[in-house]
C-alpha cells in the first residue's frame, strides 16, 4: 500500500508545474527514502516484552464504578467552562 502511495506521489511530482526540476528531484528523493513503518511494534507479539510494557500498571477492581468516577471529578471554579 505504501509503495502505491509513493508511486502516485512521484507521478504527481512529474505533473507539478510550480516546482522547478531541482526541487522536484529533491522531493522525489525524499519520498523514495522514507521508511515504511506501518503496523505495530514488535513487542506486541512477544508476551514477555508485552508484560514489561505494563509492569508499572496497577489494576484494581472497583465495586461501584460510578461512585469512584464521581470522586475523581474536579469542581469547576467560577469563570470556568461549564
From TrEMBL:
<dbReference type="InterPro" id="IPR000718">
    <property type="entry name" value="Peptidase_M13"/>
</dbReference>
<protein>
    <submittedName>
        <fullName>Endothelin-converting enzyme homolog</fullName>
    </submittedName>
</protein>
<dbReference type="InterPro" id="IPR008753">
    <property type="entry name" value="Peptidase_M13_N"/>
</dbReference>
<feature type="domain" description="Peptidase M13 N-terminal">
    <location>
        <begin position="1"/>
        <end position="41"/>
    </location>
</feature>
<dbReference type="Pfam" id="PF05649">
    <property type="entry name" value="Peptidase_M13_N"/>
</dbReference>
<dbReference type="InterPro" id="IPR024079">
    <property type="entry name" value="MetalloPept_cat_dom_sf"/>
</dbReference>
<dbReference type="InterPro" id="IPR042089">
    <property type="entry name" value="Peptidase_M13_dom_2"/>
</dbReference>
<comment type="similarity">
    <text>Belongs to the peptidase M13 family.</text>
</comment>
Amino acid at each position: 500500500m505504501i509503495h502505491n502511495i509513493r508511486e502516485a506521489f512521484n507521478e504527481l511530482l512529474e505533473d507539478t508545474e510550480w516546482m522547478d526540476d531541482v526541487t522536484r528531484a529533491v522531493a522525489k528523493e525524499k519520498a523514495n527514502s522514507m521508511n515504511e513503518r506501518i503496523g505495530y511494534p514488535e513487542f506486541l507479539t512477544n508476551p514477555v516484552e508485552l508484560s514489561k510494557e505494563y509492569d508499572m500498571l496497577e489494576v484494581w477492581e472497583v465495586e461501584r464504578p460510578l461512585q469512584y468516577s464521581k470522586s475523581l471529578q474536579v469542581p469547576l471554579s467560577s469563570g470556568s467552562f461549564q
